[in-house]
């Protein structure tokens, strides 16, 4: 899947120890995906408050995939806190009229090539669908 | 305007002068990304004073470009857009250090693995992405303070907890490298679970000989061995742990250590009452129980057990391992053991050979899910077992073997749907059943609580990363060796112990330890003393209050950032990864320019 990105901007929040090397593995395999994907790396996504995600949507990000280390997270209690926080972000998204499918918390490891691509493709589809629903509502 | 306000908030008396360097990677990048366009776009940023592209930025001439610009053009922040930071982030930080610029005033942007290599057919899209990512890097580094590595004093002494093979090997290796070692063992002897064995695969050496050799070496190396002792309390942090050791006679002693190696071992899975007849029928034993029986059996022509001659034995693999939810009974925590215990296939086959060596007329039936004889020389045990007449039957979870205890005039039987014969139901008369049980994590709840150790979904201690940092825990200065980390055999335990000892030796090679500065940091001017961050921190002593302000102990902080998200004033941040920096990056990525506006035709 290359080229056609429908001008979507998808933010991939990756962990330095797990999903960031996973994204590199996808690159080393020369697997293709949309250039409308922007990868940032963090020690752990638990660092972000709810307001960060809402601000991303305000600033032009269409979809966010949090690629965490899941239950393999090396930081004590961090994944539980992250998943609880994402739950609260969903509520804020609904209150703000943003389709909750435009945010996803998932787990990607250093070799999850297929899952990495699947998440991007699904998020693109979600973003496009959310846009179309929004247009219909506006009309 | 907003960007300028953000910049004003941080302590930067000097003008921010960013140098941007875009690598061609010999065509790996520049064949897809228009590097000139990236340079041109970066040049327009008010803080970017120099932007260049070059064929190989990582080469000596490439690095020299950066060093010269720092020295001659007063560049004080550097962004390199190139390959993955995992390859060359350190290279460029060192270049900054050589130019006498703080090495943390550097941002590495990945436009190869995550751009040119994955968007080959879309040059415009890949170039626009490279521009946005590079601009995000500029925004981030423009908000970066100089950072210094965290330096703590280091005790040249190590505490190893557990004196099984892994603990002994680690202690020995550390001692031979000149470090002081205290080896703490709960039981009265060194050797751990290996002491339960007669011979070991694949070398067929006597386990007792291996332990005796190791024990002698450990004693000769002047390791401080504390048998019948347990860890009562641990305080401190990397370089400076203080361990209170309590012996069985309630005497206490203190040890100071720069690092700790966990080598606490495993427990055998114990089948529940009735699992394949266990504890209900005397004919059913676990593999460790059968091995003990075999070792203690006096020389004899016949295998007898409880006064009965044993002519046939059925081995059932994967008891307590590779369990499936809904089929197997869960453990007290509600979870089944879905992991493979790895060593039990070869261990069972090794025992089968031991048995046949002594009683060649025995009939042996082996009921398995998969035979996983993965190690060097292990497969040989499987092949030889077939040649010696062992009959193999393969079962699946939806057709688990059924044990029927002996009736009046009939022996016990095992009934199995054999996958190898297209699910033919086979009933096998057996005089004895051996359950090939797997490994469970040992109960070390007190240590887990004291040290806040991370455990995985399988309840074993969890390393930071299985490939990148395989013997380190997220807790600085605490490492793992052996089966406390997961099922492994003696060879693997020895390797893990060697790796942990090598890591510790490097760590404690000097009087001080230098660590990356990426831990929580408090801006006391912003902190209002609300203490919300304290409730988020899982690392004891990492975050405290001092003069009504949050205070971080950098040596104890893991740098996860849990505290950051709850701070209402953004007073606490992970150094080098602040929320203001991330916001600025998002602004750059989300900027409204279209691809065609960003990339000149």
Describe the structure using short key phrases.
heterodimer, A: 139 residues, alpha/beta, Rossmann fold, four-stranded parallel beta sheet, 4 helices, globular, disordered N terminus, B: 601 residues, FAD/NAD(P)-binding domain, 3 domains, five-stranded parallel beta sheet, 16 helices, elongated
CATH class of chain A: Alpha Beta
Which shape of chain A, going by the Cα principal axes?
globular
Strand order in the largest sheet of chain B: 10-7-6-14-27
Number of helical segments of chain B? 16
What would CATH call the homologous superfamily of the largest domain in chain B?
FAD/NAD(P)-binding domain
Strand content of chain A: 15-25%
Q: Uncertain runs of chain B with pLDDT below 50, 5 residues or more?
A: 1-10
Class of secondary structure makeup of chain A: alpha/beta
Characterize the overall form of chain B: elongated
The CATH architecture of chain A is: 3-Layer(aba) Sandwich
CATH topology-level name of chain A: Rossmann fold
Number of domains of chain B: 3
